[in-house]
Amino acid sequence: MNPTSVLAEVIVDQLILDGVKEVVIAPGSRNAPITMAFFRAYQAGRVKFHTRIDERSAAFLALGISKATKSPAVVICTSGSAAANFHPAILEAHHSAIKLIAITADRPARLRRTGANQTTNQVGIFGAAVNVSLDIFAPTKPEVGQIAKWRGEISAALNESGPIHLNLQFEEPLIGELEWIEPLSVGIPEVTEKMEPLPRPIGSYETHGVILVGHDRAEISMAEIELLAEKLGWPILSEDPLSSSKVIPHASLLVGNSERRQLLKPKIAMVIGRLTLSRSLNSYLELADFKIIVDSRIGEIDTARSGDEIHLALPEVDQQKIDSEWIKLFNESSVEIHSKISNYLKSWSEPTVVNEFVSQLPKNSTLFVASSRPIRDIESFATPRADLETFANRGLAGIDGNISTVIGIALNRRKTFAVIGDLAFLHDINGLLLGPEEVQPDLIILVISNDGGGIFSTLPQNGVVGFERIFGTPHGRSIAKVAESYGIPAIEVRTLEALGAQIARDTKGIRVIVALMPDRESNAKLLKQISTNLD
Ligand SMILES: Cc1ncc(C[n+]2csc(CCOP(=O)(O)OP(=O)(O)O)c2C)c(N)n1
């Protein structure tokens, strides 16, 4: 009889019963009971199993899986500093309200603060980023009722939203028999479903309103948003123009100067999700006399967020007067913007490359967009299309974990594409570290390679003394060679024709296209030139 093995076996069984379908493990000894229990479940066909050496990548991989499958993935590591490597992905999951289960193995509590090897205080290590943090141990003497107690704790924890943390104290021996004084299947408790906030019906609003949609839309479907916009007779200005053909193209440029902002001044604005990409949309929002915020995260995460009206779910509208001239005004202005910018989008540059890439993706494919310039270039320049499924880590807009997140997504989709800057690519290069038995998804990663952080050249600090070492941070590496050193095929492109040919190649597994860009400074100048031309 081995309490440690039994604890691990019961937790794995209960997690699977409560909806876990995939697990990512990072190697270690203290976590042996739970990684071995999960491997047995994998062999029995109950769960998908992934292994990653780097815990930070492992956690972002699990995040990507949770995002794509909408069921919580588990990530497991050993004790000590390994646990801290989960923190970035947990923070991203927290701020995007994604369920993720982090399991950290620990030594028994009596060994804390004794100088025992690889032992730190892991209890509560993720602070307020997790809604539940359990510290579970196996009693040395078996007790009747223990199994039901563990199962109840796990089920209750999984009923919470956002990421959760299970710290499991494993006593040695870490490997042993699974006999117990009662069957391990006993006592699965009834779980009471958490009530979802009900949409609050509203009467009618002013005719001159707008819907402003943040990139992650607070997980609300675009179809629902389109329906509401139609009922209200309001235009949709979206940070992500690639998941609806009903959005006004080039929204951030449309409201990029104060004159046009005044022309399109709304009486009322409804914000769905968070606006995190451009200053222009936020300045535009400020012009509205009345602001409605729709985001379930206001309930638990962004509790200090304010607005004239707050909704945790999309409101329903009864009747509404519509002024058809209002939307026309937006469409006409947008057509004007389109003709002004199209001249700039013909030759090789960052906005052109990103724009060509997203317009050439096959129908119904999945796209992950990294933070920094690519997501902003798409917001400003892309022509709307409705047949892509888009993802981004906009919870905290980190340049960490992007490769791992998209691999987690791609493992659950047929064909996935990603566009990412070279720093974000290098930051999570270990995301490409896949062992020989790991499943490689069909994924094409386009790296916009400008040898450093291009975004900083577009900000007011451009040109300050020490700019390159403080902000630009060039690395001088060949992205293609780095990818190849991880066993991932990579090719460099310098023309739109070559880029198009690479996108069209139907290949299996992961491959990288490196778009070699001119210097960051000339890109900043081009962006400036485009916006000046729109004034
Ligand atoms: C984890 C993390 N560290 C630092 C930052 C700050 N940061 C924002 S953008 C950026 C540079 C990104 O460079 P790259 O990925 O090459 O994209 P580009 O700016 O060239 O589009 C940095 C360092 C961040 N967002 N996340």
TrEMBL record:
Residues 392-506 form the Thiamine pyrophosphate enzyme TPP-binding domain. InterPro entries: MenaQ_synth_MenD (IPR004433), MenD_middle (IPR032264), THDP-binding (IPR029061), Thiamin_PyroP_enz_TPP-bd_dom (IPR012001), TPP_enzyme_TPP-bd (IPR011766). GO terms for molecular function: 2-succinyl-5-enolpyruvyl-6-hydroxy-3-cyclohexene-1-carboxylic-acid synthase activity; metal ion binding; thiamine pyrophosphate binding. The keyword Membrane does not apply. CDD domains: TPP_PYR_MenD, TPP_SHCHC_synthase. Residues 207-369 form the Menaquinone biosynthesis protein MenD middle domain. Residues 7-123 form the Thiamine pyrophosphate enzyme N-terminal TPP-binding domain. GO terms for biological process: menaquinone biosynthetic process. Pfam families: TPP_enzyme_C, TPP_enzyme_M_2, TPP_enzyme_N. Keywords: Magnesium, Manganese, Metal-binding, Thiamine pyrophosphate, Transferase. This is Unannotated protein. It comes from freshwater metagenome.
